[in-house]
Hints:
Blueprint: H1 4-24, H2 39-49, E1 84-87, H3 90-105, E2 108-110, E3 130-136, E4 139-147, H4 154-162, E5 167-171, E6 181-189, E7 198-210, E8 213-226, E9 229-237, H5 246-264
Antiparallel strand pairs: 1-3, 2-5, 3-4, 4-9, 5-6, 6-7, 7-8, 8-9
Helix pairs in contact: 1-2, 1-3, 2-3
Protein name: DUF5642 domain-containing protein
Signal peptide: 1-18
Keywords: Signal
Amino acid sequence: MKSLWATTIRRLGTVVIAAGTVAALGGCGSDDGGTTATSADAAASSAAASPASSAVSSASSSPAKNIEVTRLLLPADQFPSGFTAQEVPAGQADDTADSLLDATKGAKVSPSSCVQLNALPDKIDLSNVGMMMASRGMELLTTSVAPAADTVDLKAQRASIAGKCKNMTISFTQGEMKGATVELKQKVVTAPKTKADQALVIDQNIVADVGGQQVDSLTRLGLAQVNGYTVSVQYRSMSPGAPVDQKVFNDLFVKAVNRVAAQTR
Length: 265
C-alpha cells in the first residue's frame, strides 16, 4: 500500500505537469487588453502543451513532406550527455493525456482570459504525435513532433505571455489534482538560432501546493514551426532552487528542430 507521503509526492508531480499544460495552452486564449513523474505523464504533457495538439481538429497545414513523425524524432543517442532517452509509444501516454485534459478543463484560471478551457477538445489524439523522453536524476527532457495546426500563432502566444498572462493562478477542482493550487510565473526568453520558420521559448516557474505540501519546479519550453511541423522541447528540473540547464536545453532544441528541417526540406 502506498504511503500518504508517496501519494502526495506523486500528486505534486502530476499537478506541476498539469499546470504547465494549462499555461502552454494559453495561446488558445484571447489577448484582449525528490518529486518524480512517470514517462507517460511527461510525454502526454509535452504533447498537450505543444500547439501541435491542436491537430485534433480536422484542419491542419500541409507539411512539406508526408513523413511518419517518429522518423523525425531526434534519436536517443543524440540527446545530451548523461540523459537516458527512449521513444514513448502513443498508446502509453493516451490515458494520462485524457486524465490531464479532464483536470485542466475543470481548472479555475486567473486571469480567466489567458486560457479558453471551454474550447479544449474532449480528447487529445496522440496517434500522429511522435514523442521522446529522457531523464538524468531530477532532470527531465521531453520532445514531440507533429503536423502543425493551422490555428497555431506563436506571435500571439508571445504577446500573451509577455503581457497579462505572465503571472497566473491555477486551481484544480476535479480529478487527481482536485484541491491543488498553483502559482505560475512565465516569461519569454531568447530562442537558440535554428532553421525553424518561427520559434518561441518560455521559462516557467511553477509553485504547486497539494494538501499543504509544496514543490517548486522550473521548466523551459521551446516551440518551433518547421516546414509544416511543430516541434516541442521541454526541460524540467524538480530539484528545489536548481536553475534551468541552458546548455542542455539549447543543445537539444537546436538538434531536434534542425533534424526536422533537414528531413522535410
